[in-house]
Amino acid sequence: KTQRAYRKDIEHFIAQTGIVDVGTIASKQIIDFREGEKARKMSPASIARRLSSIRSFCNFLRAKALLKEDVFVGIAPTKIYQVRPTEALSDEEVRKVMKIVFKKGSV
C-alpha cells in the first residue's frame, strides 16, 4: 500500500511537471508543483506526503548518480497543523466556576 501511494505520488509529479528525463528535475519544478497543489486546494498533509515521496525519489536518483544535485536544498517542508479537540467547559461548569470566583471576591 505504501509503495503504491509512493508510486502514485511520483507519477502525479511527473505528469504535472511534464518531466521527460528524471535527471533534469530542478528545484523550480518542485516549488511550482507544490504551489500548484496548494492552488488545487490539496490538504497540507497530502502535499507534505507527496513532497516526501518526491524527496525520497530524488535521493534515490542521486544515490544512483542519475541526478547531480540535491534539488530540495532551500525548500522547506510543508507545515502541517493539526487541530486537536479541546474539552471546553459546559455552561453549567462555567456557572460553577464563576460562582466560586465571585464568592471569594476575586473579581
Strand content: under 5%
Rg, please? 24 Å
What is the number of beta strands? Answer: 0
Cα end-to-end separation: 58 Å
Structural category is: mainly alpha
Query: What is the string of helix and strand elements?
Result: HHHH
Low-pLDDT runs = none
Principal-axes geometry comes out as rod-shaped
Structural features, described:
The protein is mostly helical and 107 residues long. 59% of the residues lie in helices and 0% in strands.
Features:
107 residues; mainly alpha; 59% helix; rod-shaped
What would you say about this model in short?
It contains four helices and no strands.
Provide the fold topology.
Elements: H1 2-17, H2 27-39, H3 44-63, H4 91-104
Helix pairs in contact: 1-3, 2-3
